[in-house]
Amino acid sequence: MIDDVLDWAGRGARRLAVALVFVVVASGLWYWQERDVRERLVWMGLPERQATDWLALHRVLRNQGVLLGWSDLRASPLWVGYQLHPVAEGVHIGERPDFRRDWRTLWPVAPDDYLRSGYDRGHLAPNYAIAANYGRSAQRDTFLMSNITPQRPNLNRRLWQRLEEVVIDDFAPRFGTLQVITGPVFAPGWGALLNRVGYVQVPTMFYKIIVVPGPQPRALAFLMPQRVQGSEPLDRYLVTIDRIEALTGLDFFPQLPGPVEHALESRVSTQGWALARVADQPPRY
């Protein structure tokens, strides 16, 4: 009897050991594959939290063609990163999908939370550019509520939309490949966490960083407040990447060599962008 029990226990231990080995190997393969995919979606490293800023804690979610740095504390993305390429003229992207909840966010952020709030459901990864670059499945992912933040109508429908259109219509054809990182800026302090639409904290500003990758990269960075008329010139909102890092508690492009990072992030340079030609351009729609 005792021998039978010991034999049964031994078989159980072996099966458990085999199962644990399988889990470890499978998890390792998933991790390496996921890391490889993430590295191909972002240039010079994922944005990282600066060591002293706990409000910048986040976890990374992956959509089709897009990475998001999701904050469970703010119930909001802190950054969204994607690469864009030129789009063929006349490309058709299909009808706008419906907004959908994202089960990965933990908080039940719903499309109806924005009703009568005074805020639009503002995209961070843009509908048109992502759909034109990555297809219908990627377009549907841009309508997940994890990609949405509260934006005032004049910002969302006018100034922000104009900037999105210039990036895909002018900058992408000019340079070929662009790395874009965009996201919200929140008021400082823990008290600002109470300003919410549903579960989502309301930002005070939004940033967009556009980089032309390469050994000598070039960049433009914009910082736009919620309260705008919408007709302002885009170049009014140019800032340094360092300024955005100071406001967000994030370190962008952490794998850049120090001298290159300093040159890219510490100054505003519009040379080669032909920004003056498009700064006052009206929206497409």
Question: Can you put this structure into words, describing what you see?
Answer:
The structure is a single chain. The longest helix has 40 residues, at 2-41. A seven-stranded antiparallel beta sheet has the order 2-3-4-7-10-11-12. A two-stranded antiparallel ribbon has the order 1-13. It has a two-stranded antiparallel sheet with strand order 5-6. It contains seven helices and 13 strands. The radius of gyration is 22 Å and the shape is globular. β2 and β3 form a beta hairpin. By secondary structure, the protein is an alpha+beta fold. It has two domains: 1-41; 46-278, Extracellular Endonuclease, Chain A.
CATH topology of the largest domain: Extracellular Endonuclease, Chain A
Major pleated sheet: 7 strands, antiparallel
CATH superfamily of the largest domain: Extracellular Endonuclease, subunit A
Number of DSSP-assigned strands: 13
Strand order of the largest sheet: 2-3-4-7-10-11-12
The CATH class of the largest domain turns out to be Alpha Beta
**Which residues form runs of ≥5 with pLDDT under 50?**
21-33
* Coarse structural class: alpha+beta
Domain count: 2
* Shape call: globular
N-to-C SSE string, H for helix and E for strand: HEEEEEHHEHEEEEEEHEHH
Q: Tell me roughly what share of residues is in helical segments.
A: 25-40%
Q: Beta-sheet strand percentage? A: 15-25%
Tell me briefly what this model is.
This protein has 285 residues and is an alpha+beta fold. It is built from seven helices and 13 strands.
